[in-house]
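Next comes the chain:
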Amino acid sequence: MTSSEKQQFLNNLEKKLWTSANKLLPSLDASQYKHVVLGLVFLKYVSDSFDARRKQLTEQFSNPENEYFLDPADFEGGAEGEAYQTEINTELEERDYYAEQNVFWVPQQARWEFLQNKNKVVITGEIEIGEGNTAKKIRSVGQLIDNALEAIEHDNPKLKGVLNKRYTQLQIDQSKLGELIDLIATIPFTHATLSSKDILGHVYEYFLGQFALAEGKKGGQFYTPKSIVSLIVQMLEPFKGRVYDPAMGSGGFFVQSEHFITAHEGRIGDVSIYGQEANHTTWQLAAMNMVIRGIDFNFGKEPASTYTNDQHPDLRADFVMANPPFNMKEWDTGVNDNDPRWVYGKPPSGNANFAWLQHMLYHLAPNGSMGLLLANGSMSSNTSGEGDIRKALIENDLVECMVALPGQLFTNTQIPACIWFLTRNKAAHTAASGRKLRDRKHEVLFIDARNLGYMKDRVLRDFTQEDLNKVTETFHNWQMGEGYEDEAGFCKSAQREELKKHDYVLTPGRYVGATAEEDDGEPFAEKMARLTGQLKMQLDESDQLEAEIKKNLAGLGYDV
């Protein structure tokens, strides 16, 4: 199957899910609908993965060459006997078989087959789940789903307080919720050439993007385009160590880090994930995002403000990546003016850009590197001490690379953005990826990527993989000192003295210059004479045309 056929499969899937679910739940706003749909997608995926492992185990139990083989001869009645079937069913409920393959454990009452079989029943009546003192009477589809999520939390402590168990409270027709279960059941998490995680990841990211567009974002919080997340991950190469995102949203940087490590045949177990998020529902989504991918994580004890309740105060990360809210105002309520994070100057109350940047630097390990998306104003603003902070960062040799991005990248803002790459160590050393980095002290690389990308529709721009590779290779070649050259209009390696001449402004356009015009071989004097002659001819033609129009209007009786 070609890549275009794979993409068509995914496009058809997302279109079907979005349009169908919208018809089923027209009464819900996007903030509610997000959790209704993604909670069910979560249940469907973990259940499918669990069922796939059960099928694999069943085959292994009957295979004499497998270590898990159960010999029918050891049981009364053989393979067709009740004792043999009972033993297989008992073995299929052993959690260790699933844990060894990193398969999420799903209790019986949370399995998709159970939900589909029972959702129609509880619309017209009730069912009883459990036995004795733990027995529950289930009287609605919402209660059936909430019970499934509770059972999963009970059996998987990592998810305690993470799943959004509010289906019983939804003010919607229960039959519509049942229909949504049947719709989600049609998501094919099996495919000839796509892995179940790839399909699930696509569905999940698509829905998050659609919800960001539908809800709109307040306070400068924007859904990060996948290509920008991929670019930052490609440039930093988080192969080994601690990865931290203090404004993690739904965990996009962690997901792309996993994709990157897997694609380069690394081990996801070599990376430790740390994150923080203030919004409770987004914090829940991020945890679900990690669980369905089998990624271990530490998102702190609770959702909390990064400024006033740092969940990882002692963390020193090897890689820090983030897309914090742009130009956030009144961020410092409850923050001490003498906070130890403000090493390079106290950020102004009216803009949190340099607060995010310094928070990330504070948590960066001695050899660590970081990348963060900020509004373009951060590169040149001198108001309220921001220029002094930027100067201090440059003088302390922390800025490594600046990337200017094209406009129209975000679904819900036209604020132009850039990427800051900082590092605590520009001396020659070996990176986590194994690349040998040269001594880059007092040098900064500027990349102007504003002319890259393509319009994916009438309003949104995106990068191709070739675009991402061009920026990434330019950065890596510069770091290693192999194959890098300044390119007018695109990239320039500048010394600190040159930055001083520009008053410590970090806008790439100031340094890379204009793209060199192609020489067509025509001498300048001859070209000037030719173009001047063409202009005179066109002006003469314009005068003749104007005279002809006046003559015609006069013939019609108009006073001209």
Notes: The chain has three domains: 23-185, 216-512, 525-560. The domain at 23-185 is CATH 1.20.1260.30 (Ferritin). The mean pLDDT is 86. The two ends are 70 Å apart (CA to CA).
